[in-house]
Amino acid sequence: MRTIFRRSLLISCLLSIIAHTGLASAETMLRVPFTFLVGRTFCSAGLYSVDRTMTRGEFVHLQGATSTCQVVRTLGPGDPEATDNRVVLRFRVIGNEHLLESIQFGPMIATLPVLGVR
User: Is 37's pLDDT higher than 90?
Assistant: First the structure.
């Protein structure tokens, strides 16, 4: 269990550093170095854009630059400080599988259901 937590924390920190931008109001590009699951859909490793839209609510949109992987979720208040401006993808690691758990965009967070592995 400790190993899983450490790997999850490491992955979260790594992607946070990669995605750190001056403002969380524009599109941010992230490179995810591994294949991951969103629900039961596999998303390939590669470049992903993350942006925030405010059309009838606040949404975060994750789109693969070279893949068909796409996620749109509602943003809500989260744990980050109000001044936090990072874009962070958080993953749960189970065995060799990486499951997308949440997307942080500035002080807002979208959580995703983690359904498990094959």
Answer: yes
Residues in the chain: 118
The mean pLDDT of 40-59, rounded to a whole number, is 87
pLDDT given for residue 54 in this prediction: 76
Sort strands 41-43 and 46-53 into parallel, antiparallel or unpaired. Answer: unpaired
Written as one letter, the residue type at 104 is Q
So what's the pLDDT on residue 66?
A: 84
Give the whole-angstrom CA distance, residue 106 versus residue 83: 8
Q: How far is CA 106 from CA 16, 47, 73, 95, 110, in A?
A: 11, 20, 15, 30, 11
Work out the number of other CB atoms within 10 angstroms of the CB of residue 95: 8
pTM of the model: 0.73
Q: How, if at all, do strands 76-77 and 87-94 pair?
A: unpaired
Distances (CA, A) of 65 to 6, 16, 18, 89: 29, 19, 16, 16
